[in-house]
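# nightly structure sweep
# worker-07 picked up a monomer target from the shared queue
# config: single-sequence mode, recycle default, output format = structure tokens
# input follows
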Amino acid sequence: MEKYNLREIFLIHGGNQGLTEEVIYKNYDVKNPESNIPVYSGATKEDFFMPKINKNAIIDNKPIKTFYADNNGCIIVVRKGLAGNMMVIRNSFFTITDDAYVLEPKKAFKNKIDLDWFVYKYQSLFIKISSTLEGNATFNKEIALNLEIDLPDFKEQELIGKKIRVRKKILSHIIDIQNLIDIKIKGLKKIIFSEQNHICKFPLSSLCVIDVGKHHYTEEECYRMLNGKTEYITATTKNEGVWFKIKKDPDFYPPALTFTKNGKVGVVFYRNKPFIANPDVGVIKIRKQTPKGFNYPYLQLVLNHILPSIGTLKQGQGKLNINVVKQLEIPILEEKNMELIGSIYKSLYTINNKLNALKENLLLD
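# output follows
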């Protein structure tokens, strides 16, 4: 095990000042798209869409700084925003805004350090040394340069690095599939909300019984009722809102939809198990007498599109007025079209949930 200061291993490069979103889009070369390179910033994540800019762009009478990551790679470190977050870049020309740094291994260390291992080993420390100023975290470059880095044998690093690269490849494929699912869902919405396909519209309250959760259990109370079969639904969007499974008689039975009415409003989930909900959650049950072909997946897709746009902001928190929800006009299509859209969306929704679970396991592993 060898010890070095970070400044002995890496060169650290700052980004481009004035590289705003507006400037980036103005300097995108439509005629020669191959001349455009990715721009990394304070919003940088593995699955974040990178805008591109012409590599020969001039800003404030100066050519932009560009970088090249070879097969060994270099590291993007977020300076402001998701401060301290790191991402390895390989085999690519790119540039960065002033909200990021580039860590480039010095020649003497290019074959001594596996960058994926380094990110894995030091990511939490990089986030820890980022200071928070007025609610905005900033990466502390000077502290980072003096960090003591323990470098084990390269083969030991590479074993971990290879596992991480395999995981990244799987994650990349998952993201690609989910992007295709999003495109398919947008296509379904286009059909639903095209006026020419509408037979009529009904207020949601005439199609469904709309209720609100009744119980507000604390975490401590839930722990005392654990290991039951009744799902306790809250306005969290993690795990589809299921906070605990508790020993309590359910208030609602499937099939049903729930939607978040406080916090991140308008997220709609399908329920296929008995549940209890807290007051931050709305509950929807389709009435017996509705147009033929009207179904839960179809309605879920419609509401997931409409509800987020009708929320209001109060004291920094999203709110949905239940009376406004009841008056929503729901488009009704031909029976076969609603059935087909519902069937397709149900399949896409199921696949996407499984991919999310796989993604979460890969990130936690």
